[in-house]
Amino acid sequence: MCAKKWTRAAWLAALLMLPRIATAQKPLADRLVLSIEPRAGFVAPHHDYIAYFLRHNVAAFRLNVGLQTDGTKDWHIRFRYPVIGLGYYRSNLGNSQHFGYLHGLYTYFDNHFLTPQHRLNVGHRISFGLSYATKHYHAQRNPQHFVLSTAINVFFQYDLLLRYQATQNLSFALMTGITHASNGNLREPNKGFNIITAGLEARYSLKPLTTLLSNTPPTKSDTTRLALLVGIMGGAKTITVGNNHLYASIGISTELQYRIGHASIVGIEVDAYRDNSTRLCYIDKHRTEDGFRNGMYYRMAIYPTYIIHAGRLGISLQPGIYINRTTLDGRFTYKLGLRWQMLRDVYASIAIKTHYFGNADFIELGLRYRFRFI
Question: Rounded to an integer, what distance in angstroms lies between the CA atom of residue 53 and that of residue 58?
Fold first, then answer.
């Protein structure tokens, strides 16, 4: 019953958001793009525990319903008329008895690198949403499942595609990519699943792109070239199995941005956090409180930033390094996130913050204000 309610709520929220992302003058029915893709692959065993329980390969599939962009906005043209939509994902997890199955609901952004005139094209696709795991850790019912501890988790998928346009309405694509599911350390254990798959997509467009293209000049996106963003952000996490207490991480951020193209921004972000779980992590690592200092609660990091903009939506990629040496999590960190322009200079953000490009720290929520210079 809970799974059904969650599924309905997620679809409703996504359906309400989608028209805001891809509005246009053409009727929505004319712009529908439908696709199905069977996939096969394997769970990447990034921990010995996962490798021990794997018994077979992964079989998965995706069902997608998208909207074809039509050139009414300048970013439609810059991204070679991408398709934006909603989808459903299902796969086993290498051992159905132990790990169960993974179901995902997501929004996706699918675009090509070459112009639509090329029958053979290359591109990529980013999908982000929520997943439902049919089996997860439970102290009594499933004490050996150390990969996921919650039924509802973050869903992320990145694919590279090679597409062939067979007819004006029908295309086929070969793709390979990685799927990730974890809860962002909201509860332990949280090793997370990383799934490598390849597949074949059959995609059908109700109307050819050539009949959808707008004859009016496209609406221009934000053209601010140089800006400074300041903001507050925070999150929460658990740190040990069996301890469900959430420890807050709250901080501030300063980010200098420079636009290098109509849809691309580079920058440098510096953030500073107070992480309330640090003391317990120190004791767990050193088996003593001796040597712990209050300054260890605080951490600073610097992130080179690359942001891909599609209208109000931005996808941020941020490999980073800690500035202070008191952190217990090594030197390197990484953030992968989404940003939404709520008002002209106000942005909301959500990001998965990790260590070593894979060990989740927490899900970061943020609110930023932009000061424009040029």
Answer: 13
